[in-house]
Design goal:
about 75% helix; about 280 residues; single chain; about 0% strand; 12 helices; disordered C terminus; mainly alpha
Length: about 280
């Protein structure tokens, strides 16, 4: 994981190499043999790997916290800087995919699609590659469906399902990807105007929400459903939650627009279809 951050990776290389050589010299000066020095070096490398992985995970958790709490602009800006400092293929790909998650939540779906299509994934039939393809296409689905290009959205979702359905696809990612696919199918149903049974599913999604952004999205979708059934008071209640707690997400902007509150977010960032009610 630490290879995804240039500064942490450089820190790991410096600490593991310089620290390792220093320890080897100290062990030799203490009169221990070559094997003892080698064992100390290996243990030091393991320690550095564990420590810097822990440090990188803390940074990822902090960044995820920004997205989860609807601080999307800060999240995108952070990954923009990270991407600019990374030259390793895997790390740059991870940064681009994470930034695209934020761009979709921000409403900048064209930029998200450009970033996602820029990512070159290997086509080898390995679990790691299949998982990356599944995640990337689930994100492409989200971008295309918000843009209103349902044909492309359906194609991306089909690729995601194909990858997850392969016998090589396994836990711990399988359950999470199945959940993502289920949510994608719910979103597609609304985009295609199929509202039957959606209210119960989105209410369940709201009950199970673990992050603020999940709550905001569920409220916004429930507002769409309430509007479909002509329940204006309920629609307003859901929109008010999204407008109040949506931070810098597109849902705050759209909810404010639907409530007649003007442009509560920079409209220029949004390049999906707009209903000017």
């Amino acid at each position: 994981m630490f290879k995804n951050f240039a500064d942490i990776f450089i820190g790991f290389l410096a600490a593991s190499s310089l620290g390792g050589l220093t320890l080897m010299v100290l062990v030799a000066l203490m009169g221990f043999g070559y094997m003892a020095s080698l064992i100390v070096l290996v243990l030091w490398f393991i320690f550095c790997g564990v420590f810097f992985s822990w440090f990188a995970k803390r940074r990822v958790d902090r960044l995820d916290g920004l997205l989860n709490n609807c601080q999307v602009s800060e999240y995108v800006e952070a990954y923009d800087k990270i991407e600019a400092r990374i030259y390793l293929g895997g790390g740059k790909r991870t940064a681009l995919m994470n930034k695209a998650r934020g761009l979709i939540a921000l409403g900048a779906v064209d930029e998200a699609i450009n970033d996602l299509t820029e990512i070159g994934l290997p086509e080898k039939h390995r679990f790691k590659d299949m998982h990356l393809q599944a995640v990337l296409n689930s994100m492409l689905f989200s971008a295309y469906v918000e843009k209103g290009e349902l044909e492309h959205a359906v194609k991306a979702l089909s690729v995601c399902k194909y990858m997850v359905g392969d016998r090589l696809y396994r836990q711990p990612y399988l359950s999470r990807m199945i959940e993502i696919i289920n949510r994608a199918e719910m979103r597609l149903a609304l985009a295609e105007g199929e509202f039957e049974g959606m209210e119960e599913q989105y209410k369940k999604l709201l009950e199970d929400a673990e992050t603020l952004i999940e709550e905001v999205i569920a409220h916004y979708r429930l507002a769409e459903i309430a509007e479909h059934y002509g329940r204006e008071d309920e629609k307003r209640e859901h929109l008010e939650f999204a407008a109040k707690h949506g931070g810098t997400t597109i849902y705050r902007y759209l909810a404010g627009l639907a409530l007649g509150g003007g442009e509560v977010q920079d409209k220029a960032m949004y390049n999906g279809p707009i209903d000017e009610r």
